[in-house]
Every structure is written in structure tokens, then in C-alpha cells.
Amino acid sequence: MDGKPEGSSQRVVVGMKILCQIVSVEPLSLVVSLPNQLFGHIPITQISSEFTTLLEKIEEGVDEEDEESGSEGDTSKQQHKIPDLVDIFRPGKYLRAVVTDVHAPGITDNFGVSRPKDGSQRVSRRVELSIEPHRVNGGVVVNDLTPGFVSLATWYAFVST
Question: Model pTM?
């Protein structure tokens, strides 16, 4: 016996790199299936630094325009259209991800205004992941770069302004 309780799987810890599969695409996150019948989620701010920067610029621009023009915020949001996650990702696609946070069961939900629609969404919020290339590819050394090696790239083509 190796010290783990019988029937338990390897523990998910921060920094662990995992191959996951998209189960559903939500407006602000991806729900993914992890090994050993676990679920996780990838927030929209953990896709790439460029995507997050674009979101922040749009938010700042919308806030400034709202202050200047009053209630015309809907038109400014339309001018700053970013791709929806459903336009970029599809259920069934595999992703390499890194665990960024693990929440204990029963922790108060502080993940946004919407409530989980089903059990997999609720359970997925316990494991937070990132697919930011600098995190997922962290630790890769030159000797790792052999024929057939797959490296995650950024979503720059989707977020160029």
C-alpha cells in the first residue's frame, strides 16, 4: 500500500498539468471533464493573456463611454465585439490545462452572478484550470521539443485588434 486510501485517485493539486475534454461551453467559462470522473472549469480570463487584455480594454472603453454618453452602453458594447467562447471552442475538444485552484466541497459560490444549471457545472467549480500558454507550457525545455511534440499556442488570431 502506498499511503493513499483504497479507491482514491491521485489528488488534484495546484500546478498539476492535465489533459481535459470540453463538456460544455458557457458564456464565461468552459466546463471540462478531467481524469477519474472529475470536472473542472476554465474561466474566460484563463484562456490567454491576450484575450484577457482585450476583455479589460473593452471593459475600460465601455465604462468610459458609458460615463460620457449616459445610457448608450448597448451600442458601445456592440462596437467592441469579441468572439463568444462557443465560436472558439466545441464540446469534445481536448485541451492541455494546468490546475490553478482547488476549492473544497461546500465552499460558498463566488464565481459570478449565474447559478450552475446542473450537477456537472456545480461540481466543476471545485477545480479551476487555465489554458494560458505560458502556464501550460511552463517547464518545457529545449530537449522536450522533439518531432510530434504539441505545444499550446495563444488565441491571438481571435483577439487581435
Answer: 0.69
